[in-house]
Specification:
This protein has 312 residues and is an alpha/beta fold. The protein has twelve helices and eleven strands.
Length: 312
């Protein structure tokens, strides 16, 4: 048996070829492929590239493919992703799921749990022992994604502008962000943000500077990260309550690049999750979410896959 597991995120796409025992035979990486912000042809090109690279040297098609993408529990996005996979030659046993499910399965397999994702975007997704699923946030940077790298980065930029206007306190973020972009004054950031067409990923990358300012004792940086922790906790609380697992010994999984680049946020969130689920444990995902895609694709090929169903 051969399966393909693909994690198509906003920042990068990872494709794993594995055998029936879950052993990784090949790996390929590409640019981000997010249907919410990238055009269809660009997404198709990225997926084609990583699949071709991971499958190089293999003669037989995979027994199943699992593709995880942001937002695909919206029917129109799921249909579009499947259309792309059909054009690439994959017409049967193609599973398309929300990428948050990949991260959860990569950490706890198919056991109950809740994953808190903070990367370029943010989402909280979970499932319980009854096979029910719930989610919160993850509706894109214009509608929410509070606690994401993008959200943290935007608030850092706003703090710099507020200081420059005299509307906010002095902050260590100002010299760090000006140096990061190679400009002399806060007003120069207008050109950087609007005329250079700064990407969401570049703004999300500023979250690491917020961690540096926090380490330097900056109160504004602390306020931004405290707010990020509170927003992620609020989403986790919503999912926990809807799944009815507040008193269960479940696992919370922290996933996404922000928890690596901003370790304070991971620590703070780990401390505060006990407020909503005192018996829960907190783990940080230490493998690629695409491992979860491999596990789901294997179950699909074996005919044993049962996906959690969203609560009404």
């Amino acid at each position: 048996m051969r399966v393909l597991g693909i994690d198509a995120g906003a920042t990068k796409t990872v494709c794993l070829l594995a055998d029936g025992e879950g052993h990784i035979l090949a790996e390929a990486r590409g640019a981000g492929a997010n249907l919410a912000v990238d055009d269809e042809l660009r997404v198709e090109k990225v997926l084609h590239g990583v699949i071709e690279e991971a499958s190089r040297g293999t003669q037989e098609p995979p027994d199943a493919v699992c593709l995880g993408m942001a937002g695909v529990d919206r029917p129109e996005d799921g249909r579009l992703a499947r259309t792309i996979m059909r054009r690439l030659g994959y017409r049967s046993r193609v599973l398309v799921v929300n990428d948050a499910l990949l991260a959860l399965v990569a950490a706890v397999d198919r056991a109950p749990g809740i994953v808190i994702v903070s990367g370029t975007g943010a989402i909280v997704y979970g499932s319980n022992a009854q096979g029910q699923a719930a989610r919160s946030s993850g509706w894109g940077h214009l509608l929410d994604d509070e606690g994401s790298g993008y959200w943290i980065g935007v608030n850092a930029l706003k703090a710099v502008m507020r200081e420059a206007d005299g509307r906010g306190p002095a902050t260590d973020l100002t010299p760090r962000i000006l140096a990061h972009f190679g400009v002399a004054a806060a007003s120069d950031l207008v050109h950087v943000v609007y005329y250079r067409d700064l990407s969401r990923q570049e703004i999300a990358g500023l979250s690491a500077l917020v961690q540096q300012s926090l380490d330097a004792g900056d109160d504004v940086a602390r306020e931004i990260l405290e707010a990020a922790a509170s927003e992620l906790l609020r989403s986790a609380g919503s999912v926990t309550a809807r799944l009815g697992v507040a008193q269960a010994a479940i696992s919370y999984v922290l996933a996404g690049g922000v928890f690596r680049g901003v370790p304070w946020l991971a620590q703070r969130l780990s401390e505060r999750l006990a407020e909503i689920a005192p018996r829960a444990s907190v783990v940080t995902l230490d493998v690629e979410p695409a491992v979860g895609a491999v596990r789901l694709a294997t179950a699909e090929a074996e005919g044993t896959l049962v996906l959690p169903a969203y609560l009404p």
